[in-house]
Write a structure and sequence with these properties.
0% strand; nucleus; Fungal specific transcription factor; 62% helix; Carb_Metab_Trans_Reg; XnlR_reg_dom
């Protein structure tokens, strides 16, 4: 965040267009709550969405991490066509190696953390979209080598100016809360994914049908491990 704000203040023009458009689209939700902006004409959100969609499609031809960030932001719109775009992003993420363990890669520490954050955000998006749309997930545990998140994965080692280097106590608390919620959301999503894989795949449905009068007992046996994880 601080690096981004520094670049913005210094009039850096090298921002990824769909990422910037995605940020603006979501920020417009709070336009009326800002005293400085509320009285001004609100930007055309439809026009922004057109720019974001067109530039995102172009960026996917030669994707970067910022392409993934832009796509994930675009998916947070209430009326987003989430399943088709989610499917595309999973494919792009695999092309970028986001499903792999980057712990030993010869890249900066901040980039390792960024890759993990984007990877787990993609995991969350894929699993919940799968549930909402009733479609098979495109991320499988057997091919998901990303290590669990730690507090160190949120560190931003890139240089910032003195002006932005110091957060207020309230900002620091809010940042820490956001990091905790993100990591807990990953854990909850993993449990939800296990529920879907245990009860709602085609193979699971066949198993329950084949169990006949013993189906209830089979369901309860499979439910117990998941119930324990939810309780914890």
């Amino acid at each position: 965040e601080q690096v981004f704000l520094d670049r913005l203040r210094n009039h850096d023009r090298n921002f990824n267009p769909p990422l910037l458009a995605g940020m603006y689209i979501l920020a417009l939700n709070w336009w009326a709550q800002d005293p400085k902006l509320a009285s001004l004409p609100k930007p055309d959100s439809k026009r922004l969405e057109e720019i974001a969609s067109r530039s995102l499609a172009s960026a996917m031809q030669r994707p970067k991490l910022s392409t993934m960030q832009a796509g994930l932001l675009m998916l947070q719109r209430p009326d987003a066509d989430s399943w088709s775009l989610t499917t595309q992003l999973v494919a792009v993420g695999q092309e970028l190696g986001l499903h792999l363990d980057c712990s030993d890669w010869a890249i900066p520490v901040w980039e390792r953390g960024l890759r993990k954050r984007i990877a787990w955000a993609l995991y969350i998006q894929d699993k919940w979209s799968s549930l909402v749309h009733g479609r098979p997930s495109h991320i499988f545990a057997a091919n998901w080598a990303v290590k669990p998140m730690t507090d160190d994965d949120f560190a931003e080692d890139a240089p910032v100016t003195t002006r932005s280097a110091h957060k207020t106590e309230e900002e620091a608390t809010e940042t820490a809360r956001g990091q905790t919620i993100f990591m807990q959301m990953i854990s909850l999503t993993a449990i939800m994914a296990e529920v879907v894989d245990t009860f709602y795949t085609q193979s699971a449905i066949r198993d329950f049908d084949a169990a006949g009068p013993h189906a209830t007992r089979l369901i309860l046996e499979r439910a117990k491990p998941v119930q324990i994880k939810l309780k914890d």
